[in-house]
């Protein structure tokens, strides 16, 4: 009888296929974006009243979370040659789980800062490489759909976080916030354990060096980067001031304005799937350009301040919010292997993130100067239109240097 030998983690386990990988990536995206990041906006009033006692400091917490997200994005881009995409996702899930757990237990503002930083940094480690893994797991003809499904996890996270917050507040009152993050920490831990066990894309040989400059190998890379920056500015203004604009400028009741915002979240779930699949049929340039044109129209409907235009704006904007990055990610994945995708997607995400930092401050400053949010939304519409024009510079369908649908690196 041969002596027993301890098996190393992952040894003897077959690689996972897309039917396992993509659902795991959807759940991972939900943790990355829906729990620590977008979930904070839902709990901000309760957290501020109970622990922070300053909306300025509460806003700074959100800024620190985004700053940590950008730092994580830079780390993924710079370490893509050494850090396998799936390893980055697993590490990000552990980091995000720890961050949300710290938030749930935080006794003071400095501990809240630590939790927000951990959650933001971990979110980037998850989200930046995830679309590349999904795109490499399927044939090129289904790449947009696969990446779109993965991106729908953002909407799943937003909807789940909203529903959980509403449930906890219904049971424990609107001042309760620790239980929400506590439950989310448990859910994030379960996703992390599942990823440690089953997120195993087959290894892919990588020839040559992997650098952040990998983006320059993508046809139309300048237009891709500029369009994502315009997109970032547009959604920063829209998502930050939508509810306030409808209440302040249009006279909507709080429940009405919140329902419109919730509709955006529901449509985020479908946008990546629908627009990503559409891009597989009509090409990346056409899909991205027209998606940004639709986003421009949706933003312009907000100052109208009446129904049914508010609902139409929410539907179109929600579809575009998740659809546009799905098409951009598919465009990058058409030309890059998963490791180079992580480096390149990280590079364009940095531009997006900088626009996200500027957007809320710019929109708020304009609103204070003008006394309404109309001009701020006109600026956001201009940013979305600029994104459409930048997308129109991408090569026509078939001009990209296609990469075989090789499995993602583990």
Task: Give a short synopsis of this structure.
This protein is mostly helical. It is 75% helix and 0% strand.
Key structural traits:
mainly alpha; 75% helix; Growth Hormone, Chain: A; single chain; 14 helices; 410 residues; globular; 2 domains; disordered N terminus
Q: What do these coordinates show?
A:
The protein is mostly helical. It has 2 domains: 17-198, Growth Hormone, Chain: A (Up-down Bundle), CATH 1.20.1250.20; 212-397, Growth Hormone, Chain: A, CATH 1.20.1250.20. The chain has helices spanning 18-35, 38-52, 55-78, 85-105, 109-127, 130-136, 143-172, 178-198, 221-248, 254-282, 284-301, 309-333, 338-370, 374-391. α2 crosses α3 and α3 packs parallel to α5 (109-127).
SSE layout:
Elements: H1 18-35, H2 38-52, H3 55-78, H4 85-105, H5 109-127, H6 130-136, H7 143-172, H8 178-198, H9 221-248, H10 254-282, H11 284-301, H12 309-333, H13 338-370, H14 374-391
Helix pairs in contact: 1-4, 1-5, 1-6, 1-7, 1-8, 2-3, 2-7, 3-5, 3-13, 4-5, 4-8, 6-7, 6-12, 6-13, 7-10, 7-12, 9-10, 9-12, 9-13, 9-14, 10-11, 10-12, 11-12, 11-14, 13-14
Transmembrane segments: 20-43, 55-76, 88-106, 112-138, 145-167, 179-199, 220-241, 253-275, 287-304, 310-329, 341-359, 371-392
GO molecular function, one term: transmembrane transporter activity
Domain Major facilitator superfamily (MFS) profile: 22-399
